[in-house]
Here is the input.
Amino acid sequence: MTIDASSGAARVLVLYYSSYGHIEAMAQAVAQGVREAGAVAVLRRVPELVPGEVAQRSGYKLDQAAPVATVAELADYDAIILGTPTRFGNMASQMKNFLDQTGGLWFEDKLVGKVGSVFTSTGSQHGGQESTILATHVVLMHLGMLVVGLPYTFKGQMRMDEITGGSPYGASTLADDGEGGDRRPSANELAGARFQGRHVAELATALALGRRHAPRTAAWADVAADVAASVG
Here is the structure.
């Protein structure tokens, strides 16, 4: 499915946190995949919580071009794809801090029905990639989003000839080369990220077009009230 952005294609936010640039590289690949589907890709990052001098001393990549997102803008997109490194099998505190500020959007149902997806990175093969993505899925579901992973139509996640990230839950990469050095995302991992971006964009565009032709009406509220009364 390829739809020209000018025709009202989906707007997809790729929102990430990256300390050392691994997730940043994956986010750029995800955004590329979104654009390949004809959708509008917007790349943003969440604010850094680590003091500047500490981040600099720790070798953080501080020259990232993506602007810092605001919580309010999340409601402006048809899909949101989150990228976060793993911290003990869960999302980084910077991402969690940002998502913890979406209470107002949750209260007003602003993210209900939007597509949500997650990608991640770990230092090692068994560093918690899947648990991090699944834990982040829980947040998306509380916000009422439709969770999308990385389907097995991306055959790269079934490779056995090399060490690689990727799972049906979402794209991922390994940040350590096994000897304590830095490992950049592989070609296969970047391909998975592009596939995920394209897949999410196609689904979000289809949903957006469907809603345009079959908008929700007050009748839906009546049906919901009737169902609630019948089970009450």
Remarks:
- Confidence is low (pLDDT under 50) at residues 1-6.
- The first strand starts at residue 11 and ends at 16.
- The beta strands are 11-16, 40-45, 79-87, 90-91, 115-122, 146-147, 172-174.
